[in-house]
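It would be a great kindness if you could assist me with a short task in structural biology. A protein sequence and the structure tokens that stand for its backbone fold form the material at issue. I should value your view on which stretches of the chain appear to form regular backbone elements. The record follows directly beneath this note.
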Amino acid sequence: MKPNSRPSAGRLLYAQSGGVTAVINATAAGVIEAARARGVPVYAARSGILGALHEELIDTGKESKAAIAALRHTPGGAFGSCRYKLKSLEAHRAEYERLIEVFRAHQIRWFLYNGGNDSADTALKISQLGKSMGYDIRCIGVPKTVDNDLAVTDCCPGFGSVAKYTAVSTLEASLDVASMAETSTKVFILEVMGRHAGWIAAAAGLAGEGADAAPHLILFPERVFDEAAFLAKVKATVERVGWCTVVASEGVRDRDGRFLAEAGTRDAFGHAQLGGVAPVLAALVKQKLGYKYHWALPDYLQRSARHLASRTDADQAYAVGQAAVKYALAGMNAVMPVIVRTADAPYRWKIEPARLDKIANREKKMPKHFISRDGFAITAAARRYLAPLIRGEAAPPYDKHGLPNYVQLKNVAVTQQLASFQES
């Protein structure tokens, strides 16, 4: 992790990976603005690592200062992202060698890959290959994931905003259910993202505090789903409160380890594709308890809701982008800028470098002491951890029509220097 000598000249390549967030473009802005301040030209890969493989690069130097600044409040992935995992060096060496060829052709000396666990692994492998091929490339992983499951870092840019959206949505929907419970819906089920880690579901717990406050049940992937206990809790809540709000992580599993929502298909990373746990739970409530229900699946809405972004999250997303450039130009390699919490009250944080081999392919789940004894709520410790991450508002500017004024970049293509890449 110690800095080495800095390459005398070259370009920086930035790429976005995996599911995008409400603030990943803030990280892009941090990267580009930091590099510009140091006189380093920045290319971006179109559609993540695939753009690098196919030499589909974008010259961010063609974008105005105002356009890059506007990325700080624009959701989505400005340069396109992808779900594509490079396999081992032994199995797909040709892909890695192609990347080095592209880097050589365009004088790419610094590669910043903005993503999660798999992206950290890719950056680590490329850094290793550069050494073996005698090409001086510095690779920095840049953290991003709504799932908040990256190791080492206290939290992940992107999580704070989806956490805020989840807590606010739980609060607002629960007020609606409470209004209608006398003659209509008794049970409302909100399904949120989180295949293996229940961080997003846990954030719903910030919507209220106390036995009668929504959400009344939170279902975590870290806890085995107990049908009898679930139904008993729902029934008791409806009888006591008059209605019940349930927040369920998509990754809830039964005693045999099967996802309740298993759809039988897999994505490009080999992860199980889930078909929806909310309708499964709703059907169970109707069949066993006879209650009228509604369920909601926010899906992309929860990770793209820039209008409800957390100020803390937006600031951290920008900061890791700036730090990534600082580390790269200082000669660091195979590291990631991570967020270190220095105090809870008042909340304080800083950025430090961490080795990619301590992050790649590792997954941070909810600690046991963050989940209540009965498995249906968050603890005071979890609340202390989560609360600062959703604080502050970072609303985008709005146009005269009442819509957010988001930026659309020109994304001017760089002239290709190599023959087309033929995938094996």
In short: The first helix runs from residue 24 to 37. Residues 263-269 have pLDDT under 50 and may be disordered. The radius of gyration is 23 Å. The CA atoms of residues 5 and 331 lie 6 Å apart.
